[in-house]
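Reading a protein record of the kind used here takes little practice once its layout is understood. An example of such a record is reproduced below.
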Amino acid sequence: MDNGTVRILDISNKFKEIHKFYNIKKFYQIRNQFILFDYDQSNEKSKKIGILHLDKCQDNITKIIHPGESGLKIDSTILMKFHEFFYFHENHYFLAWNKASSLCICALNKYYQLFQLVCNVFPYDTQAGRCSFVVNPHLYGVIYANIKIDDQNSRTYVSFDNGKEFMPLHYEGDSSECRDIFCGVELDLLCSTDFTINNFPDKWIVKFHGTYYRKDSAIRYTFISFDGGKIWKIFNSQIERLIIFNNGGLMFGAERSTGKIWYSYDMGWSWYKQKIDANNLIDIKPIESHNNQVIVAINYDILTNIYTLFLFNFSHVISSCQIISDSTCSNDDFENWYVPRDSGICFQGFEVEYLRKKPLSPCFVNRTWSMLTQKQCPCSLEDFHW
């Protein structure tokens, strides 16, 4: 960047210049998806931002957003939170202030139409590491947002219709009679570069830490949904670095500072624990391949300054039903699953069907399976923003 000019070079082609932008104040690269340009303009009403996609499959045309034309404003406080700009499912999602100085989630669709989805979202400080909202990278139209209930507090809501309606979270087995506005959950919505890997381990699986507020308590838990966010399971937050794979057929985590590992074969219904010679597991990673489920963990002993590598092989295990022995899932082990839209399984002219492993099927998912089918269906005006 030189005197407000930004040059984009192709290092694979002898640093050939492929783009040049003028009058740029700042620019931000977001998740290796696109570059966000903040144009140097003194008039806030004519403020504009530019977006250049880095995906070679996308066109090389820079999208220009003029929020002022819709009565919205993007200022430096929003641009400093550039991780809260998302591009998924041919839609751009970002924050902007409305005329009432309320923070809003907005969307720019593939036809360059700008919509205001919901306002009064909570404006987190950039140092908090949390975000006002997160878009599901796998499921179109599913958005999680922390919406203010007063000046100091927010609770998490979810939308399954691309922001037309947001509803409170629902929890499995929740018998709480608290109907106070302060009761509910505030998820730690993270939107860092690797948020997809950490928080969306599979198309319909969502995992966040958060705080459950009741009448007289505020308790930290891990919240996991196996249906995109319609119903949430609540797990003890002492089980750290919880990983999920094989469509929820294996969950694994470590209990804080005790040297115990916890694992489940049935999406967290039944748990097993085992003591190991490690009380400071600093990293846990799955190694998943055909008929193999291996977990690698690294322990660091602070006193001896020694790192120890642990391998946990779950390729031949006893599940809640039977022994899994080189068993690849067959047709009978899968069920059809749809995103839980309020209007039915057809949304904006498409019916998207996923093949999901049944919760109690003791088998390994072969990743070569076609897990998604899509077909057209009659459009409904209620599915779109107007």
Helices lie at 76-79, 195-199. Residues 327-385 form a domain with the Complement Module; domain 1 fold (CATH 2.10.70). The longest strand covers residues 292-301. The chain has two helices and 30 strands.
